[in-house]
Structure formats: C-alpha cells, structure tokens
Specification:
The chain has 537 residues and is an alpha+beta fold. The protein has helices at residues 5-15, 21-25, 52-67, 103-120, 126-131, 133-143, 154-162, 166-203, 273-280, 288-292, 358-364; strands spanning 29-36, 41-46, 75-77, 81-88, 91-98, 144-145, 148-149, 232-234, 299-312, 317-330, 339-342, 349-352, 366-367, 381-390, 398-406, 411-420, 426-434, 442-443, 449-452, 457-465, 471-479, 493-499, 508-512, 520-535. Helix content is 25%, strand content 31%. The two termini are 49 Å apart.
Length: 537
C-alpha cells in the first residue's frame, strides 16, 4: 500500500502526529460524534492522538458535505477521510474513519452506537443527549478501543457499563428506611412539643418547654445492615435519663426567667453563650456522654445476617449460605463492663471476640468480657460471628418461577411468580428481571414494576411479603431484538430484600451491668441479601 507525499501530509494534519504512513494506515476509527443537522456538536469522542483543532475541523466539514448534494447512501468520502452517519430524529450519529478502513465493519460499529444512543435517550433530542453525555462516551469506549471495533454486542455493552453494586443498592434501601423512621419520630416529637406548649399556655407558664424523657433515635455507625427503630427490650423497664447521677443535673431556676431577651454579656465567671442560654431558658445541664453520642438506651446491640443463595433458571435450589455477627456499643463508661445474655442456640459455626470469656460463653451463652477489658464508649465492636451452610431448600425464604413463551411474531410473553418460603416476613423486595428489548415492555395488569431502558431490566417492587401476601405474579410482553425463541436472555434474575427475622434465631434475653443488675438496652435484628440469583447455568 503506497501513500503519496501529499496524502501523507493530509493524514499528518488530521491526526496531529508525525507517525509513519504504515502506522497511520493501521488507524481505522478516528472519531465519533453526535451532531445536529446544523452542524452543532453535542458529544464527540476521539480514539487517536488528534488535536482539538483538527477534530473540530473534521466535524465542521461534515454538514457542508451533506448540504452539497443529495446522497442515497449513509457515507461520504473526501480525499483523506470517510464519514459514516446515521440520521436519528433531528440528529446524526457520525463516525469518522480513514479511507482504507473496512466499511462493512464500520457500518456495524455505527449500528451498535446508534442502538446505545436509543437506549440512553428515551427521546433522541439535544437535551437528552447532553444529559446522557458521559454514559454515551463510556458506551462508545466499550465499542471502539484505540481505533478498532471491539467484538461486542449491545447486551455486552450494557453489562460492561452497568457497574451495578448490590451492596450499594442494599445500603440505599437501608438509608431510605432509616430516613423514613427519623421522619416519623420527628413528626411525633413535634406533636408532643406542640401539645406541651399549648398546655403551658393554658396554665399561664412562661418560657419554652422540653420533654424530659425524649431522646433521639439511635443508629450504629452507618454500616450496611445497621437499623434501629427503638424497639427496646428492657430489663428493668426504666428510662435511661433516670440512670444519670443526680449530681450531674441542676434544678432549673424558673423564677429568674422574666420573659426578657437573651443576654449576650459575658459573666464574671467566664460562662459561654450556651451556658447563658441554658440558664435563661431554664434548661437542666445535660450529661457529657449524651452530648457526644445520642443514644436511646445505655447499650445498643445489633445482630446482622447476610444471605447468599443461588438457583437455576427453573428455580431449583443450588446452595445457600448465611453469615452473621453481633455488635455492641455502649453510651458511657458506667456500662463498659456489661454482660449480654443470649438465648440458647445450636448448629452454629460461631467465633467470638478474643476478649470474650469463652468458658462463660460456652456454659450459658453469655457474652462477658475477660478481666481488665472494657468496651470503648461510643464505638461499635463486633463480639460474635457465625456461619451456616444450607444444603437443601427447606429454609429458602423466597421461591421464584418464570414461564416465558416466545411467539412467531417475535413477541415474548413472560410470567414471573413468587411464593414466600420459610420466613415470617420480607420487606422492600425488589425483583430485577432482564429483558431483551429496546422497546418498553407491556404489562398485562397493574403492578408496581418499572422498566429501566438504560439497563434493559424490569424492577418489580413488593413492599411486604408475609403470610397475608405470600404469593404474587407479574406478566408482561416484550418485543425481542431478533425474535430468537431462546429465553436465556431472561437470566440472571436478581432479588434484593431485608427482614427482621434471622436464620440463627439468636435473641438477646437480658443485659446486666457490672453489679449484675438488669439495665435497659436496644436490640435490632436484620437480614440482608448479598446475592440472591436465579441463573441460567
């Protein structure tokens, strides 16, 4: 293959390099872009070492060539490069290649890029393209690498760019749940404060009021699986504020408050602004521990299990594993030597913390620290871990069946059924079903399901599955890409949920202080999903 001196100079100007003709000959796809019909560039990606000025010059030439005459084909050649384009609404998907590239392969590349543009933009217009610019560039990079087309299909590109994290989904579900709980608690507190304010006005009392025994909800350190809905189990049925030494509380001097404004003058004792505010508002002094960490009880105990389960495409059981842990956090040094009494449990492969007295634990299932060891205040410590492996389907929490049928017209009708297994309740269930179509599926009945065109999946959300809602069904019709009767595209189906019921049945019976007196505690149990998949093996 010979390149004249003139042609070589043109190619050097295009690429912005001083490469040899042989090196430039090997370059195939120079650039791809999405432009308007007036020539405005919305998204552009270069795959070779080319300056911005040269890239803009190539793209600016394209609308002039389109306007130069009518073309019955979708490519235009110049002396140095070839333009391949695909009209989409009022836009062009454009591919700029060297003249010696394989035009058949380039057309396939352009076709895959056009499919990805349709996937990422519900309506192919300027606004949607700009909103999805980064996603489109990532997809283009999966299709073309260093100027050469990768041997990938649209489904593979979607998989490569999805970067889905099941842990992130579970964490976001937990965050939403906790935010909802906080909103409900705040709503109740506002109503309580409003009732007390009206009562004080009715009695003719001045000054703001504060609920003496209200407390903020408590959550442990933001780990995935850490919940708290303040469902406290109490050993002595007392309030935490009653356990604070009376020497730490100052009786409010209500006769000093005369309804005047707050005084900002410094006192001779050097009190801070907050101390003045507390005195004038007749607030009791708060303990130091409650200022550093808001906790609803002296001791918080969280038990978390993470479930991994696998099934084949027919719903047959393949394997299931559960890993769990118990974590403890204490509110103050007064409770850093507590003992936690668990219910008797068996058939668990468990490990406890090295600082736990193993003899006491083996004898009566009590989590007791060894001598000269104490819990750090405000820090979450994992004291017990365990694991279970299930080799049969007797303990499966949720069963799913799929019934796909592909007609001669390329329309697939799919029915997905679920049934509650050996568990009392599942919350925030999301069943993710892949589909092999660019068009939106048609649901045959009302269902809380949505189609995500970017990932080409259906997310079927079920808020609660319990004995009153133990079964359900979703039926939809979808137009396939190629009408292939093979239904392997329907898998893998992923399921995500959480539950308050643990497989280990571990429960906290009581918590004792260093004097073996029962104290209040908060206990939260939660089951999370690491993997719950139905796969076509």
């Amino acid at each position: 293959y010979l390149v004249s001196t003139f042609d070589f100079q043109i190619l050097v100007e295009i690429t912005g390099t001083s490469q040899t003709p042989r090196e430039i000959k090997n370059m195939v796809v120079l650039s791809t872009a999405i432009t308007t019909k007036t020539g405005k560039v919305l998204v552009s990606r270069q795959f070779v070492n080319i300056t911005r000025l040269n890239a803009e010059g190539l793209l600016a030439t394209f609308p002039k060539l389109i306007d130069a005459g009518t073309h019955q084909h979708t490519f235009i050649e110049t002396d140095s490069v070839r333009y391949l384009y695909h009209p989409m609404e009022d836009l062009y998907v454009l591919l700029v290649t060297s003249k010696n590239s394989n035009i058949v392969e380039d057309l396939e590349t352009l076709s895959v890029m056009s499919i990805m543009v349709s996937d990422y933009c519900r309506v192919v217009d300027e606004e949607n393209v700009l909103d999805s610019a980064f996603e489109l560039i990532f997809a283009f990079d999966e299709i073309v690498a260093l100027g050469y087309k990768e041997n990938v299909t649209p489904d593979q590109v979607r998989t490569f760019t999805a970067m889905e994290s099941r842990e992130e989904i579970a964490f976001e579900m937990e965050q939403r749940q906790r935010e909802q709980e906080v909103r409900e608690i705040n709503k109740r507190k506002r109503k309580e404060l409003e009732r007390e304010r009206k009562e004080r006005e009715r009695l003719g009392l001045k000054g703001p009021s504060y609920a003496g025994n209200t407390s903020s909800p408590s959550y442990s350190s933001g780990r995935p699986g850490s919940y708290a809905n303040n469902s406290s189990n109490t050993g002595s049925q007392g309030n935490y504020s009653n356990n604070i030494p009376t020497s730490r509380i100052t009786e409010p001097q209500r006769d000093t408050f005369q309804g005047q404004g707050l005084s900002l003058k410094p006192t001779s004792q050097g009190n801070s602004y907050m101390e003045n505010l507390a005195r004038e508002e007749a607030l009791p002094e708060r303990p130091v521990e409650s200022q550093s960490k808001q906790m609803s009880s002296p001791v918080e105990i969280n038990a978390v299990e993470r479930l991994s389960a696998s099934f084949d495409a027919d719903g047959n059981f393949r394997g299931m594993q559960v890993k769990g842990e118990v974590s403890v956090v204490v509110a103050s040094e007064a409770y850093n030597r507590v003992s936690i009494q668990l219910n008797p449990f068996t058939k668990l492969n468990y490990k406890n913390h090295p600082f736990i007295n193993k003899d006491i634990f083996y004898d009566n299932h009590s989590i007791t620290l060894s001598d000269d060891v104490a819990y750090p205040v405000g820090n979450t410590i994992v004291v017990l871990k365990w694991g279970q492996i299930f080799r049969d389907d007797m303990n499966v929490p949720l069963n799913i069946e799929t019934w796909p049928t592909v007609g001669n017209n390329g329309i697939a009708r799919v029915t997905v059924n679920y049934e509650l297994g050996n568990i009392e309740e599942l919350l925030n269930v999301v069943i993710t079903i892949p589909v092999h179509s660019r068009s939106e599926p048609v649901f045959t009945h009302e269902a809380n399901a949505q189609f995500d065109p970017r990932d080409s999946v259906i997310d079927w959300a079920i808020p609660v599955i319990d004995p009153d809602n133990s079964t359900g069904s979703l039926t939809f019709e979808v137009e396939l890409y190629d009408g292939n009767p093979d239904t392997s595209w329907l898998f893998p189906i992923h399921v995500n949920f959480f539950s308050r019921n643990l497989f280990s049945k571990i429960m906290v019976n009581s918590v004792l202080d260093s004097n073996e007196e029962p104290i209040d505690f908060t206990n939260e149990n939660v089951l999370l999903v690491e993997k719950y998949a139905f796969e076509n093996i």
